[in-house]
């Protein structure tokens, strides 16, 4: 087995916490299990207009929570907003099940500081993969496996001082599990209210909950993997980032 690269990944924690690994495992594994279950149990039987509306509308709303909220506002402070808008964006971002604000933002700020260099938590190029299948291993690391190795290791004041000084952000983070429940419970409640049966509620939960989370998560993960390996480079850059219009369409510009 190849030796580990000699560079520090974290400055706050020595490794991803067990609870973070467990929560991310649920977030990554449960939606596709639900998807394949739905394909087997509901294919050709249970897919109604309300399911399509929930899938599309919650996908778009929660995507704005990441691209506008977690990325443009919380990470880069690209604009100012009323606290109600800030809270709404924060909650919608949490509903994608990609982690609390402080975790997502501190990891992403370190990624920008060390993009595709040693220390970047999810680069496909920064030495985390070696051997003949280096490109494949690097892609898989950047897409999903980094979350079980480097996730949440920068949740300190170096990359998150402004976040921890903000009472609203701290409050949203403390209620993270509530937003996860809301993300899955809301489609069930709407499906039940419209259809009047538990079966219709479960159906909406599958399409508007699990499938929607599955689709958007992997669209977002593709920014780390696909967009640092495949696409067009029309500008000089110190990293390996590329423009990929397919990913950009799926995540509303982040590709």
Can you tell me about this structure?
The chain has 255 residues and is mostly helical. 62% of the residues lie in helices and 0% in strands. The chain has helices at 18-42, 49-75, 83-94, 101-113, 134-143, 157-164, 167-174, 176-195, 198-225, 245-251. Helix 9 packs across helix 10 (245-251). The longest helix has 28 residues, at 198-225.
Structure classification? mainly alpha
**How helix-rich are the residues, as a percent range?**
55-70%
Kindly report how far apart the N and C termini lie. Answer: 34 Å
Write the element-wise H/E pattern from the N-terminal end onward: HHHHHHHHHH
Q: Write down how many β-strands occur, each being a DSSP E stretch of 2 or more residues.
A: 0
User: What's the overall average pLDDT, rounded?
Assistant: 83
| Low-confidence blocks of residues | 1-9
Features:
10 helices, single chain, disordered N terminus, mainly alpha
Please provide a brief summary of the model.
With 255 residues, the protein is an all-alpha fold. It is 62% helix and 0% strand.
Write the layout of secondary structure elements.
Blueprint: H1 18-42, H2 49-75, H3 83-94, H4 101-113, H5 134-143, H6 157-164, H7 167-174, H8 176-195, H9 198-225, H10 245-251
Helix pairs in contact: 1-9, 2-3, 2-4, 2-9, 3-7, 4-6, 5-9, 8-9, 9-10
């Amino acid at each position: 087995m190849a030796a580990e690269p000699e560079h520090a990944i974290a400055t706050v924690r020595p490794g991803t916490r067990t609870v973070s690994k467990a929560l991310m495992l649920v977030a990554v594994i449960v939606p596709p299990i639900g998807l394949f279950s739905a394909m087997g149990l509901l294919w050709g039987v249970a897919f109604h207009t309300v399911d399509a509306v929930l899938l599309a509308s919650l996908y778009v709303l929660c995507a704005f929570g990441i691209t506008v909220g977690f990325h443009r506002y919380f990470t880069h402070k690209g604009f100012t907003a009323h606290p109600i808008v800030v809270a709404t964006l924060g909650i919608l971002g949490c509903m994608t099940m990609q982690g609390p604000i402080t975790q997502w933002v501190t990891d992403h700020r370190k990624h920008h500081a060390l993009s595709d260099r040693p220390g970047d938590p999810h680069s496909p190029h920064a030495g985390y993969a070696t051997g003949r299948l280096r490109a494949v291993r690097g892609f898989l690391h950047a897409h999903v496996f980094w979350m079980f190795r480097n996730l949440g290791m920068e949740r300190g004041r170096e990359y998150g001082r402004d976040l921890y000084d903000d009472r609203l952000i701290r409050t949203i983070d403390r209620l993270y599990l509530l937003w996860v429940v809301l993300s899955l419970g809301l489609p069930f409640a709407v499906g039940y209210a419209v259809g009047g049966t538990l079966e219709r509620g479960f159906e909406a939960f599958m399409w508007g909950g699990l499938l929607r989370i599955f689709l958007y998560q992997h669209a977002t993960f593709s920014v780390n993997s696909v967009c640092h390996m495949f696409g067009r480079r029309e500008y000089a850059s110190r990293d390996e980032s590329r423009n990929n219009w397919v990913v950009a369409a799926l995540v509303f510009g982040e590709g």
